[in-house]
Design a protein that fits this description.
Conserved hypothetical protein from pyrococcus furiosus pfu- 392566-001, ParB domain; five-stranded mixed beta sheet; 5 strands; 7% strand; flat
Length: 315
């Protein structure tokens, strides 16, 4: 029988050949080099990993210095690992041609992992409103669940007070936002995807978007169709009127249009434009003509044609 097998049968016998320091060391978290293929993304990870300029800088840094800060992961039942923090570092390692990266493997429950995932990402410089909205909601729900569960130290006692107002305060303090602002971001989760995308693109301003989030999904669909067709965006006052009409139950398409056209939208509809490629018209003009010269020449030709037509009609 092997030494390892004997230890498994009689752990106390194994203790004779190890010190307490050895046993304590075995329990400590350690940084491991893990294959990238074994690192799975966090479920419903709200932060998008973008191949942008910041990613290029991170890739260059890793090529020169390696990964300076280990990722954090927890082991899954199938033997793979779930990333909690380090999704951008993993992507950068892939782009840098690496096969593995340093990872701190930590044992934690779902809610603890969720809270850590949000906290390690929410202070990033460029975060979309939709990312904040989803992240704040995930953390708030995790905190409330932790507050309602018995603690490990005493299964008969409920954990810390993370419910209600206190949970909102914790999310606000860790993110550097006010409690009210956190609540506004969480409200954005009630927007239909088309409107949430407009918020991310800054085509629908944040404060009006919060008011619009109180509309029913059907009303939001009508609202989206209107602003998309008119190429406009509501003022805060208009959004508040839409919200009030929705609460009264009379936000019909006609009512919506009346509110949106009662005052000029914050973004006026663009004038119709004609676009002709330079390739199609440049052959009709001297070589070296600029775009402005070509446009001016076209306008002069059209003006001359227009005047000739009027003269012919007067004869």
């Amino acid at each position: 029988m092997s030494e390892r097998r004997r230890y498994e049968i009689n752990p106390s016998f194994a203790d004779l050949f190890t010190t307490q320091e050895d046993r304590d060391e075995a329990k400590l978290e350690k940084v491991q080099m893990l294959p990238l293929k074994d690192l799975q993304p966090f479920p419903d990870h709200p932060f998008e990993v973008r191949d942008d300029e910041e990613m290029e800088k991170l890739v260059d840094s890793i090529r020169v210095h390696g990964v300076l800060m280990p990722a954090i992961a927890r082991e899954r039942p199938d033997g793979s690992y779930e990333l909690v923090a380090g999704h951008r570092r993993k992507r950068a390692c892939e782009l840098a041609g690496l096969q593995e990266m340093p990872v701190l493997v930590r044992e934690m429950d779902d809610d603890t992992a969720t809270i850590l995932m949000v906290d390690t990402n929410v202070q990033r410089e460029h975060i979309l409103p939709s990312e904040k909205a989803k992240a704040y909601k995930m953390k708030l729900e995790a905190l409330k669940r932790k507050g309602g569960r018995p603690s490990k130290e005493n299964s008969g006692q409920v954990g810390p007070d993370f419910s209600g107002t206190r949970s909102n305060q914790i999310v606000a303090e860790s993110s550097g936002e006010s409690v009210k602002q956190v609540q506004r971001y969480i409200r954005l989760n009630n927007l239909i995807p088309e409107l949430m995308e407009l918020v991310d693109e800054n085509k629908l301003k944040f404060n009006p978007a919060v008011e619009i989030s109180y509309l029913t999904p059907e009303e939001q669909e009508d609202f989206f169709q209107f602003i998309d067709g008119q190429d406009c965006s509501p003022s805060l006052s208009q959004a508040q009127k839409l919200k009030a009409a929705s609460r009264e139950g009379n936000l019909t398409p006609d009512r919506l249009e009346k509110i949106m056209t009662a005052q000029p939208p914050s973004v006026k509809p663009r004038e119709a434009q004609i676009s002709i490629s330079m390739e199609r018209v440049s052959k009709y003009f001297p070589k070296g003509f600029t775009q402005e010269q070509i446009v001016n020449q076209i306008l002069r030709i059209l003006e001359a044609q227009y005047r000739k037509k009027n003269r012919d009609m007067e004869r």
